[in-house]
Amino acid sequence: MPLKPDLPLPEAESRRIGFAIVGIGKLSAEELIPAARTSEHAAITALVTDDEEKGRAFARAFDLTDADVYTYDRFEELGAREDVDAVYIVLPNSLHREFTERAARMGKHVLCEKPLSVNAAEAQAMVDACQAANVLLMTAYRCQYTPHHWAARGAVQGGKIGPVKLLDSIHAQAEDDPEAWRMKLDLAGGGPLPDVGIYSLNTVRFVLGTEPEWVFATLHQPKDDPLFREVEESVSFMLGFPDGVVANCLTSYGAHKTTTLRVLGEEGAVLMDPAFTYQGLKVTITDQGGEFQPKLPNPDQFGAEFDHFALCIRGGKLPWTPGEEGVQDHRIMDAIYESARTGQVVRLQPVPGRDAFRGEKPEVQGQEG
Ligand code: NAD
User: Fold this and answer.
1) Pocket residues: Cβ below 6 A from ligand 1
2) Which residues are marked as active site?
3) CA end-to-end span of the chain
4) Which residue's CA is the closest to the ligand 1 atom numbered 5?
5) 240 C-alpha to center of ligand 1: Å?
6) What pLDDT digit, counting tens, does each position of 328-345 carry?
7) Which of 21, 27, 179 to mutate to test the pocket of ligand 1 (most atoms within 8 A of CB)?
8) Which structural domains are found in the chain, ordered by start?
């Protein structure tokens, strides 16, 4: 992978890489801030929030001080903080670009939640801004850092199930608040597709290592339901990969919480159920020797992400899921919406090779090489 030896690196190799968390919503509060404690190479050194009171309460609980809490309008003051190497953007999707560009201008690396943005053009602008500022951009695709997803990919790519023919994946959940930002098109960029359907899309691409050549999709949006006035309720999308491999995916904001992935080869299958939860992932491999569930460790998914990005910053390496990986999912999601709108198959730019948009392989517990 391309080294970037001229990146601004932290002085002391032994110092943990410092992150400012931008946005203290549900994910930051319940997962990311606690997860940083499990990280070997990263530490949270500042918090950025629209609610200073909440910021101070979190600061006290996590060994920071009031001086480590910033409001959005004081974001640029982080530029002077030597112990802030990177920002982790955990805001509604349409705000990701603005905060990425502001961070890049300060020379800070950026870890950004999925989806990277609201469409491919916006996401590409984020990649360009980080490249111009010579800072790293990583898309926070936590599933690509779990032993379970690597075991599934290993079984598929290692030939255990024979040549792959078909895949299917569901990521659905029931939403009930019409006022939530997820239900506002300008903040979310779409409904369940960019929020949870993206897991099916991203994981199918990760497990195969190749890129789809076409998409075909339909969606359902009952606009008379206050929940779905602006965004779709559900999407069904089909992805066509090289050699006739086809993936069928379903996503919804109106159905029982379900996360699955299934890969069918000529001689076996891989099933993940649940496939995308924070804990309790399960992978079952069926090959000619029978059915088995590999015993795998369960490291914190967000801690693993923090560590990978911290090591990339320290070593000047492109992360395994860089901004480009997030842009590619947006290109495909843009095509999915186009297909649903036109009723036509949409052809995608052919992408030769494997793992075309990925960087340095992560160290994943329980996996070799
Ligand atoms: P949330 O609603 O719980 O938190 C969003 C934060 O943004 C809050 O602190 C809120 O105050 C702030 N905010 C700033 N401007 C806002 C505005 N105009 N409208 C609404 N909120 C505003 O959201 P969340 O669930 O923490 O999601 C944040 C990001 O994290 C999203 O990009 C989402 O896709 C992503 N996410 C990722 C995962 C994962 O597993 N990787 C899980 C959940 C969310």
Assistant:
1) 23-28, 50, 90-93, 95, 113-114, 140, 142, 181, 187, 195
2) 114, 199
3) 15
4) 25
5) 32
6) 999 999 999 999 999 999
7) 27
8) 13-142 (3.40.50.720), 146-295+323-347 (3.30.360.10)
What is the CA(347)–ligand 1 centre distance, in A? 32
Between the alpha carbon of residue 234 and those of residues 34, 231, 253, 287, the distances in Å are 32, 9, 6, 33
Query: Given 3-state DSSP classes, what are the helix, strand and coil percentages for the chain, each rounded to the nearest 5?
Result: 40, 25, 35
* Structure token pair of residue 165: 């023919």
66-77: average pLDDT: 98
If you write DSSP's letter for every residue of 17-85 in order, what string do you get?
A: EEEEEE--SHHIIIIIHHHGGG-SSEEEEEEEES-HHHHHHHHHHTT--GGGEEEGGGGGGGGG-TT--
Q: How many CA atoms lie within 13 A of 197 on its CB side?
A: 31
Distance 72 CA to ligand 1 centre (A): 14
In this structure, are strands 137-140 and 109-113 parallel, antiparallel, or unpaired?
parallel
Q: What spacing in Å lies between the alpha carbon of 17 and ligand 1's midpoint?
A: 23
**What atom in ligand 1 is closest to the CA of residue 24?**
9
| Segment 197-209, tens digit of pLDDT | 999 999 999 999 9
- Which stretches does DSSP call E strand in 293-344? none
Separation of alpha carbons 121 and 334, rounded Å: 10
